[in-house]
Amino acid sequence: MDRLVFLGYPLHPFGNKEKLRDAHLRRIENPMLFFAGIRDPLRDMEKLTGTLKQLREPWDLHTVDGGGDHSFRVPKTAGMQDEGIFARLVSKTLGRLSSSGL
User: Comparing C-alpha atoms, which of 57, 54, 53, 62 is closest to residue 92?
Assistant: First the structure.
């Protein structure tokens, strides 16, 4: 079974949260895994959640704790290193790709 992984999907252009780039997502016929930084200026979480609820295929969403931006970088005050964040993204992805579910 094919699966898709979206790393920091740019749901809308910078500064224009009303112009969603989501129409094609509803046509996808494969399970989807989304990663999002909570400070990503190209992703409004409320809009992303609304979009995901419209998908017909299984999906899962994981956010980068500590304030991840579009590149999943977090402020130094979060006490997290980029390598640790990227290792968690890879681990979560491999776990999902190798499981029988999403």
Answer: 62
pLDDT digits (tens, 9 = 90+) for 80-102: 888 888 998 999 999 888 875 56
This prediction has a pTM of 0.87
Residues contacting 82, CB < 8 A, separation 6+ = 72, 73
Amino acid at 27: R
pLDDT in tens, 44-62: 999 999 999 999 889 999 9
